[in-house]
Write a structure and sequence with these properties.
Length: about 90
């Protein structure tokens, strides 16, 4: 029996809601990493789990870690598919 997979997807933006291209999105527990597109979009195929810890990083910005929970319809990281990485203060 094969494990079920699901897709975690979203968009990485800065504090001005501008897309961040080439940001790193990773789920270390599953050894999965993606790089955002020119529009800040990412997609990761993951093994079924109730939740995963997702790390968002970008040069010059503070790294963010969020928990993504699988719902009946889709995976929704921290309440939305769009994750912001804010500049450290």
């Amino acid at each position: 029996m094969m494990a079920q997979e699901f897709t975690l997807h979203g968009k990485v933006v800065d504090e001005n809601n501008q897309p961040l291209e080439f940001a790193i999105v990773s789920v270390a527990s599953q050894g999965k990493t993606a790089v955002t597109s020119l529009k800040g979009d990412y997609s990761l195929k993951l093994h079924s789990a109730d939740s995963v810890v997702v790390k968002f990083s970008y040069i010059g910005f503070k790294t963010k870690t969020k928990v993504a929970e699988k719902t009946a319809r889709k995976t929704n990281p921290a309440g939305g598919t769009s994750r912001s990485i804010h500049h450290p203060r």
